[in-house]
Write a structure and sequence with these properties.
86 residues, mainly alpha
Length: 86
């Protein structure tokens, strides 16, 4: 039976990979996937209802679009992380 040693560059990397292999990091991965899905869904809703602002000639990103995309995504991914952590 062979034994292998894993040498990490720093303690943070070791904690990260041990958390991933243990399952401790799983709620964070799910929250990240939920965040990305929520941004895509909210972007499609924004395009449907507020496309006049989105497809302007200037192609500026308005503060309303950023708030509309990221605030609900942060809230939902935070709730998923909270409920999975409990």
């Amino acid at each position: 039976m062979t034994q292998s040693f894993i040498v990490y560059r720093n303690p943070l990397e070791q904690a990260f990979w041990e958390g991933v292999m243990n399952g401790d990091f799983f709620p964070f991965m799910v929250a990240g996937v939920v965040f990305i899905v929520m941004v895509v869904v909210m972007n499609s809703i924004y395009d449907t209802f507020f496309s006049k602002h989105y497809y302007s000639r200037a192609r500026k990103i308005h503060w309303f679009q950023n708030a509309f995309l990221f605030i609900p995504a942060f809230v939902v991914s935070g709730l998923v992380l909270n409920f999975m952590w409990i």
